[in-house]
Amino acid sequence: MFVRKKKNKSGVVSVQIIDKSSGKYKMIKTIGSSSLKEEVDNLVNEGNLYIQEALGQGTINFDVEDFGKQFIENINSIDVMGVRLLLEKIYDEIGYDQMGAEIFKNLVIVRITHPVSKLKTTKYLKRYFSINLNEDKIYRYLDRLYKDQKELIQQISYDHTLKVLNGVINVVFYDVTTLYFQIDDEDEIRKRGFSKEGKHQNPQIVLGLLVSTGGYPLAFEIFEGNKFEGHTMLPVLDSFKEKYSLKQLVIVADSGLLSSQNIAELQAKGYEFILGARIKNEKQKVKNRILKLELDNGQSQIIEKEENLKLIISYSEKRAKKDKHNRERGLQRLEKQIKSGKLTKSSINNRGYNKYLVMDGDINVSIDKQQFEDDSKWDGLKGYLTNTSLSKGEIIENYGHLWKIEKAFRISKHDLKIRPIYHRIQRRIEAHITINFAAYKIYKELERQLKEKKSKLSPEQAIEIAKTIYAIKIKNPTTNIVNTELLILNEEQKQLKKLFEF
User: Fold this and answer.
1) Is 330 left (phi over 0), alpha (psi -120 to 50) or beta?
2) CATH code at 155?
3) Pair (243, 369) in one structural domain
4) C-alpha closest to that of 151 among 269, 223, 246, 242
5) pLDDT over threshold 60, residue 240
6) What is the pLDDT of residues 117-160, one digit of tens each?
7) Residues linked to residue 277 through DSSP beta bridges, in sequence order
């Protein structure tokens, strides 16, 4: 909305209030008309006051000479406003606003839109959001975040997820990943261990993550880098169950967390569980029973075990084709290495497809084709170990959701760039991961709302569109009032604005 001076053929100037919010010029009111410059100026001032008082906003006079130069000279800032309007809305809806920490909100949003080091974060906030935040203040806040707010952030996430899932959280999914550091020396938390990223030479930490049905993050914990992943599950589960006074909880985890000790402890503490089973490691009697099953595509069978345990075996033609392809590719790689003479005695181990290798005499390495053929009997078979009373279909379906926690790690590592981690003190490492935890929660809620609104946009696409929506702050040279104008210039920006009503 703005004041327009319209000069008539008679030389009289009409001063009008014009609105262009719909894309078309619409006259709201005529303030008056005059042929005298002084009176016209008074009418213009009156029009500006009308807009300010009656409509609560100022304007720029588009009819003055050399408007372009005046416009540029009166710009206070140009900010990437779309991501703030989109992500702050979701931030508040989750409940993070109750923390009352503006700095936390800024760090979380930047982690989603521009995941970089804390130093680069300060530059990004200033360049794109006109927010001045120095690095020292960020580090002081990280200490406070670890001390006072880490648990609150997880509590808020839990409460919101409980609401999304209609008040029921009785199935949780647990998995671990490793995060390495580009340093040489170990310390109390960063230690060398088995690296899921193949960085065995680098000190690392182990991150355990608990998510709900749908993949919404519930809780996390970090452990020493040399800690066996199977020993991380119970501490996280016990803390989670006690914190929220949960009586019944079904745990879903992959076969990497399967151990006799874990199973015994889970049962002793009254947990129900669904674990990926290592069916080839079962006792010979059980393996014989599995291989005698004649399952068609999609079929499954229960094998009762001791101590109230059940082994569900399912068969999939798609999985069988994948297993066969992987075996044959592994065999071809071994044959190629044998021909090149690159295989030595040190290659003989039980890892991967090296189990097909045998040593003839002292130097001749060959392939055990019989073992290769025997392994084909297991193609397409998948096992699930459980003590629940759920049906076969429910067990397989619940385990099938485990990929969502793998997706959580993938998004955290690649999209949110949880590493490299530039901190060395444990409390700041945990604070950094807490920021990523909240960022992933916002990402998941954005994903859920897009689906709920029946939008074809992915979270990544929505964020990219939001990054193109700018806001210009302009000072009105007549009234000295600073106005903010949101630039919605194309159809996809309009659709996003309409979807999320900002």
Assistant:
1) alpha
2) 3.90.350
3) no
4) 242
5) yes
6) 888 999 989 988 889 999 999 999 999 999 999 999 999 999 99
7) 383
